[in-house]
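Homework help board

Subject: predicted structure for assignment chain

Our instructor gave us this sequence and asked us to write out the predicted structure in token form, then describe one feature. I got the tokens but I'm not sure how to describe them. Can anyone check?
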Amino acid sequence: MLTHWITGKKWQSVLRIWALILLCIKDMAGLLVPQKADELVRTLKEATSLPIDLHTHYTSGVASMTYLKAVEAGCDIIDTAISPFALGNQSAGNRSYG
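My token output:
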């Protein structure tokens, strides 16, 4: 389903009309799991040359692994938080990636 939508005419018109310079995947609930992040980023990378940013929250406890799989799949930017504000309902801590 995802591949069908991203490679279809609707996707191409979105890119053309909006003149996008970046794609940001926003997972505000923190429910994106690592396997699906990998699939989503790989599919987007095949469909466009735009940089991809992933923003997720740690509410389900999988944000670090989601970021890891997304970066392995080609994600260009990940949003993190400094240690005092990290984890819980915030983003993953940036110390984890240093």
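Reply (TA_rk): Your tokens look well-formed. For the description, you could write something like this. Strands lie at 23-27, 52-56, 77-78. That's the kind of observation they're looking for.
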